[in-house]
């Protein structure tokens, strides 16, 4: 069957794009190897941080501000709470690139940001223990997105707008052309335009078109710890990112009494996305435990840990671009462990690219050509 647009990968980015394109009147097919939201890719684990004073660089701020507006619009459309304004505290040495970028982003875009010494931060959040060389920059309007609920919300709206969602049907090969041919295990589909939002599988999928992208699927772990609710519940304790000399940890307050959630952003081993991930093990537990012991010493026992996949680019910036020599194929990949907060705006951008050939957002930093 011929579709206006086929979207390969109906996860964080693809599901949002499916909604915007269906709403615009396109005949859309969303294809996924699993049944999103699911636990095989990059979008499980309840929560994702959204922050606007952006530690990865000031150029992200207009994009994430747009994403914030679209999350609010999504909440209104589905009449559901998807965002929790817990605030987010960015912690690091004052000279670290993330703290410098957070401050520069806030200044340039007039974002609320309160900066504290380690001692002041420990007075404000008594559950926190910080060495004196660190500072804490708190963004009160930032917070937490309910990741699976966000994807469910876009799924509901995309289906209501007329999209077709085909689950448990992995795309095996793509053949480019004026009409794109998409082959799954069960069926062949045709499309006038194609979006590839295949997350950790983007590299292997594009290889079927002889296109190489530098995106490495990477194993990541995260865990929940028992928490003293007086100190760590979301009403009194923020989400956080802590950059140390050789590591970067992030985490969440105890939301609905589930405990403190914690993960490590840097590092992780390259993996084959088709192989089961090595389960959360003693080494993962020890790493997270030594961190939480130092920085949130009044935590309780480890409850459980999980694994997940990042899709890393060499510079940790995203790829959002037309494929070279194919004006009807767009790829959005390589979200490098910080993409979810943008997925509402990425969905909008992908629809703009297919409808208008261009986007209102500046996508220059995300071009594929930067790797050549
Ligand atoms: C532990 C962890 C913590 C994170 N924390 C944050 C955070 O706090 N804030 C933040 O902004 N971001 C965070 N991220 C990053 C964010 O979750 C990801 O950047 C984002 O989910 C990536 O979206 P995606 O659409 O590229 O991938 P996914 O959401 O994984 O979607 C890809 C989809 O493509 C499908 N697919 C793949 N290959 C095929 C195929 N051949 N045929 C059909 N379907 C296919 C998959 O089944 C999947 O559903 C975190 C990620 C992890 C893993």
UniProtKB/TrEMBL annotation:
Keywords: FAD, Flavoprotein, Oxidoreductase
Record-level GO cellular component terms: cytosol
Record's keyword annotation contains Flavoprotein: yes
Name of one Pfam family that matches: DAO
Classification via InterPro entries: FAD-dep_OxRdtase, FAD/NAD-bd_sf, MTOX
Cross-referenced NCBIfam families: PRK11259.1 (NF008425)
Domain FAD dependent oxidoreductase: 4-353
Protein name: Methyltryptophan oxidase
Highest taxon, organism lineage: Bacteria
Molecular function in Gene Ontology: flavin adenine dinucleotide binding; sarcosine oxidase activity
Species the sequence originates in: Lysinibacillus macroides
């Amino acid at each position: 069957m011929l579709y206006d647009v086929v979207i390969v990968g109906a996860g964080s980015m693809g599901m949002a794009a499916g909604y915007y394109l269906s709403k615009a009147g396109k005949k859309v097919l969303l294809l996924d190897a699993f049944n999103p939201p699911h636990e095989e890719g990059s979008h499980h684990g309840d929560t994702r941080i959204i922050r606007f004073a952006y530690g990865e660089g000031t150029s992200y701020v207009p994009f994430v501000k747009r994403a914030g507006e679209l999350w609010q619009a999504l909440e209104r459309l589905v009449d559901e709470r998807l965002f929790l304004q817990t605030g987010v505290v960015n912690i690091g040495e004052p000279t670290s690139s993330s703290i410098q970028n957070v401050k520069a982003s806030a200044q340039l875009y007039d974002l609320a940001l309160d900066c504290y010494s380690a001692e002041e931060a420990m007075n404000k959040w008594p559950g926190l223990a910080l060495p004196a060389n660190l500072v804490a920059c708190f963004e009160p309007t930032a917070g937490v997105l309910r990741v699976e609920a966000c994807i469910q919300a876009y799924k509901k709206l995309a289906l209501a707008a007329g999209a077709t969602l085909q689950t448990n049907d992995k795309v095996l090969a793509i053949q480019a052309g004026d009409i794109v041919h998409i082959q799954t295990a069960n069926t062949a589909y045709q499309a006038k335009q194609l979006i590839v939002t295949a997350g950790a599988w983007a590299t292997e999928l594009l290889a079927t078109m002889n296109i190489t992208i530098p995106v490495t699927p990477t194993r990541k772990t995260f865990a929940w710890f028992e928490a003293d609710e007086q100190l760590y519940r979301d009403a009194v304790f923020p989400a956080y990112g802590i950059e140390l000399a050789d590591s970067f940890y992030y985490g969440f307050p105890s939301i609905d009494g589930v405990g403190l959630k914690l993960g490590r952003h840097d590092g992780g081993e390259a993996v084959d996305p088709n192989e089961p991930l090595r389960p959360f093990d003693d080494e993962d537990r020890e790493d997270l435990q030594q961190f939480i012991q130092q920085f949130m010493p009044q935590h309780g026992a480890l409850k459980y840990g999980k694994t997940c996949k990042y899709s890393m680019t060499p510079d940790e910036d995203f790829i959002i671009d037309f494929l070279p020599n194919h004006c009807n194929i767009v790829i959005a990949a390589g979200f490098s462990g910080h993409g979810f907060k943008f997925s509402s705006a990425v969905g909008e951008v992908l629809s703009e690219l297919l409808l208008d050939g261009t986007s209102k957002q500046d996508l220059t930093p995300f071009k594929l050509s930067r790797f050549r």
